[in-house]
Structure to design on (188 residues):
């Protein structure tokens, strides 16, 4: 079957969403049906056969059935599973809302596909440093083994909210959310 046929077939199998919530892709174990020529770029854009998918509703639909198994990403329906490529993370956190202050602060992120996540024990924030450039790459856990790359502008907002804290004798800057402290960098 051609990639176009695979994509159309996959779309037809995605269950219509109930009032709210995502399909239980973690419970589905369909057979692997091959790879699809689909890629999620680092900026969060979805590309099918070399062309960006311009319909936000279609991107949202596909994003509702993405699953990560190990280092591989798949679109999963109850009857089939197809592989896709993800350059970095499948989502990008494009908005941040902060409520409260100190240890009682709550940080809520909104992704490019409309998912909302509150950072906390179940949804940690982590920052990786590029070994060559030392540039930070911040992430927040969104759902079931899936993360969002925190957009640069949103990371700057986090930095503005950062407070100093010593951990094991080492000074860190970080943010609080739901009583959890997340290290985002070292003070200069």
């Amino acid at each position: 079957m051609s990639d176009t046929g695979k994509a159309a077939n996959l779309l037809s199998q995605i269950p219509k969403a109930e009032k709210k919530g995502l399909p239980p892709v973690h419970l589905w174990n369909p057979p692997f049906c091959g790879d699809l020529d689909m890629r999620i770029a680092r900026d969060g854009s979805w590309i099918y056969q070399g062309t960006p998918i311009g319909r936000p509703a279609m991107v949202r639909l596909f994003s509702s059935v993405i699953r990560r198994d190990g280092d591989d990403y798949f679109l999963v329906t109850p009857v089939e599973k197809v592989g896709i490529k993800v350059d970095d993370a499948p989502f990008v956190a494009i908005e941040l809302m902060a409520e409260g202050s100190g240890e009682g602060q709550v940080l809520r992120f909104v992704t490019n596909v409309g998912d909302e996540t509150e950072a906390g024990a179940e949804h940690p924030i982590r920052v990786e440093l590029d070994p060559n450039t030392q540039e930070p790459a911040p992430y927040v856990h969104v759902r079931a083994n899936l993360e969002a790359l925190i957009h640069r502008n949103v990371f700057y907002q986090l930095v503005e909210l950062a407070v100093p804290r010593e951990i094991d004798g080492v000074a860190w800057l970080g943010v609080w959310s739901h009583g959890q402290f997340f290290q985002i960098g070292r003070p200069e």
